[in-house]
Structures are given as structure tokens and as C-alpha cells.
Predict the 3D structure of the following.
Amino acid sequence: MELLIYPRYEEMSAVAARQIADLINAKPDAVLGLATGSTPLGVYRELVRMHLEEGLDFSEVRTFNLDEYVGLGPQDRQSYHCFMHEHLFQHVNLTPRNTHIPSGTTRNYPAFCAWYERRIEDCGGIDLQILGIGGDGHIAFNEPGSSLASRTRLKTLARETIEDNARFFDRKEDVPIYAITMGVGTILEARHCLLLASGTSKAHPIAQAVEGPVTAMCTASALQLHPHVTVYLDEAAAGALVSHEHHRWIAANRPNAPRTDTWWQNTVDAVEYAGDTGVHQR
Ligand code: PGA
């Protein structure tokens, strides 16, 4: 798990967006897993800017969203269909048939969930999955207690999530109680996961997810089991990490970071040399 900590949300969003753009440029038909909520808005703004100013081409990109509220149709203002259209889809050249968002109005949820899983597989799996984190440590709508092996299915939202998300609705009573969501197991199959968090309200869930035990009570902690996760944080979201200094040290001493001594270079040389013989020595 790689943690990258930036002074401000805008900077964090710009670097995360650049990572996504690099993938699209290298693999024009990349499969992206998309998230909704406040956190990825900066990334979407930056991707739109790159499309308009740098010609970032989405025409062959395929996308799968994490979740949708049950009972809300694509025209509902608070639906995630509407969110994606407003913040990304209408501004870039994604091909509509290449975008996928779980249906909040299907008449057959089990069949739809099975189809969604199959469709991800038919597209070759998700190359890069964008994730936010809930106040209760959820990823997508995998609330505390969700199986870490879960697949796309219906979930009952936790009270905390309903309260957190009430800000997007006229009244708290309007927040749907059920959602259709990719499972933790579905998410863990993505080749690369980008977890984004900003603000003090995310400091505690981030500390639990990154430094706590792997537990179904904080489904983001399951990312510790994934071989390729990048966590993008602003200072406020990193505020409760015991390992804050450790991650700063690692960032300052990456092989491509400016060097203040030579021990690292010597180590790299030794590893490269040993690589010729197939033996890694230090
Ligand atoms: P937020 O939501 O980005 O609006 O904070 C994240 C989440 O609940 O997953």
C-alpha cells in the first residue's frame, strides 16, 4: 500500500487524475471503476480539464460505477447516474454504451447483479478502481459487517451513511435505505485501487483502514490484502495516522526523489547487479 500525502485537496486530486490519464494514454480502452460522493469531484474536474485542454481521449474507455441508490432512476437528481452525467460524462467523449452504473430501478436485482459482475469480467476486469471512504470505513456501500468476499448485491445503508449523505437530499427521510453495490470481493479484483480521502472527518476511518486490523467492520481495511493500492490523502485526512512520519520518509526517499546521500544509490546498484545473476543481495 502506497500512501501519498499532499498539503491540499486540489493537489491530491491533480496527481490522482494524472495517474488515471497516464493509464488512459497507455491503454486507450482501459476499464475504470468510478466512485461518486464529494471526494472524487476534484479528480473529475481535472480529467475534464485534461480532455478539453490536452485532448485526453475517453472514446474507447470503459467505466463501471461502484453503486446506486435503490429506487432512484437515472433522471432523479440525487441518483448516481445523474451525478456521473453532471460531473464527468457530459464533459468528455466517453461512448455511452461503454459506461455502466448499477440500476436502482431494475425489477430483478439478483439477475442484474449477476449481469454486472459478468460484464466487468467480459471487459477484461477493472484496471483502475477509484474509491472514497465512508465515515464508517465503508468502500462503495459495503457497510460494516459486509463480507470481505462479497460481490455485487443489495445492501441496507448504515444509519451513519444515511446521515452523512442527507446533505445531498432535501430531507433526511428522502435518503434511500437500500443500495446496489459492488462487493468488497469485486473491488479487490481490480488491478489497481486508488483510495482518496480529504478532510478531518476522514482521519479516523483512514487510520483504521490503513493501520487497523483487516476487519469487516471497516471494509476499506480489506485493501491491505490487495497487492496494488495507492492512497491519496490531504494533510487533514492523514491527521490520525501513527505512521504519518514513516510515509513522509518513504516519499522523500523514493528512488526518483532528490538524494541527500548515496546509500540508496549503492543499494539500487547492488540489487540491479544481483538481478543479473538472479540473486537479490543487500
Ligand atoms: P464522500 O463519500 O466522498 O462524499 O465523503 C465517500 C463515501 O461515502 O464512500
Remarks:
- Residues 259-282 have pLDDT under 50 and may be disordered.
- The longest helix spans residues 9-26.
- Residues 37-39, 132-134, 138 surround 2-phosphoglycolic acid (CB under 6 Å).
